[in-house]
Amino acid sequence: MKKKTFAAVIPAAGLSSRMGNFKPLMPFGETTVLQSILHLLKAKKVTEIAVVTGYRAEEMNYALQQEDITILYNGAYRKSHMFDSICMGFDYMKDRAEHVILWPVDIPAVTEETVEKLLCAAEKSEGVVYPVHNGISGHPVIFSEAAYEKILSHDGREGLYGALKKIQAVTEIAVEDPFVLMDMDTKEDYRLLVEKKQAWERETLMGSRVTPFTFTCQVSLQYGEIFFDEKLVYLLNFVDRLGSLKKACEEMGIAYSYGWKLIKNAERRAGFSMLCKNSGGIGGGGSTLTPSCRQLIGSYELFCKQLKTCGQEIFSGCFDWYRR
């Protein structure tokens, strides 16, 4: 197997206990925290990506099913540390890439210009490359093959910092990007990060900085009015997993009456039932998806995936002049 020049490992197994919300799937711009990182990596042609999951793994699996990445599961996420997830990612990538980009999931606002500088420097490095802003080192960090063993053989003391101290070949790249230092451990961190990122983007549009646009699309099916979209697919997949519309609504944090209304509206427009209700018994009643509903979800998700691929190619062709 020919190794990729670059691969990426994104540790995202933690409980997000200080935040109170699940950090990887929190909104960020027009997408989520995790997907904003994935989209930037892919824009820089980094396609070998592993996300290490743990807490709320099934929800992560669903959110990432169209991303064409590798998902590694850290089953000991409640007792382990982030460094354990890092080692899991490096062990997977050690025979797949010449360089590994380590990108913590709670640092989502790094600019494309910074990533480009780091990638260029890493191609000449035999150790570690990391960004420095105002004299302080930040993320993401890029490791060459020569440094993999230092990570994998480290005993875990002081976590990643302890492993980095064993690596002699270090390249520091000075950047004007403050986001290499801005993580989001608390709600206040998140609020400040979003505000600063929005201000940065406004300055970009006014011409004081040059960063690229991004491409996103949301697909809705319409018959007279919108009746089938990503939110409904999310709800139906929860019903499929939990076997109950009530439990699915609770999991999504929406009222049962609202979820029921979404499904009934879709049934009227589509012309077939979405759910099959099971009568009660020893385990009580519940709901399952009808074959027609499963087929509709499958067609919708396939269309979204293909549209995203084609759309990205068209977008790159139309806006390539702005990226240079």
Structure description:
The protein has 324 residues and is α/β, with parallel strands linked by helices. Helices cover 44% and strands 19% of the residues. It has 2 domains: 6-181, Spore Coat Polysaccharide Biosynthesis Protein SpsA, Chain A (Alpha-Beta Complex); 220-304, Winged helix-like DNA-binding domain superfamily/Winged helix DNA-binding domain (Arc Repressor Mutant, subunit A), CATH 1.10.10.10. It has helices at 33-43, 57-63, 82-93, 112-122, 145-152, 159-164, 187-205, 230-242, 245-252, 256-270, 291-323, and strands at 4-11, 27-28, 31-32, 48-53, 70-73, 97-102, 128-133, 136-137, 141-144, 170-174, 221-223, 225-228, 275-278, 286-289. Helix 8 crosses helix 9 (245-252) and helix 9 (245-252) crosses helix 10.
Q: What's the quick description here?
A:
With 324 residues, the protein is α/β, with parallel strands linked by helices. The protein has helices at residues 33-43, 57-63, 82-93, 112-122, 145-152, 159-164, 187-205, 230-242, 245-252, 256-270, 291-323; strands spanning 4-11, 27-28, 31-32, 48-53, 70-73, 97-102, 128-133, 136-137, 141-144, 170-174, 221-223, 225-228, 275-278, 286-289. The radius of gyration is 22 Å and the shape is globular.
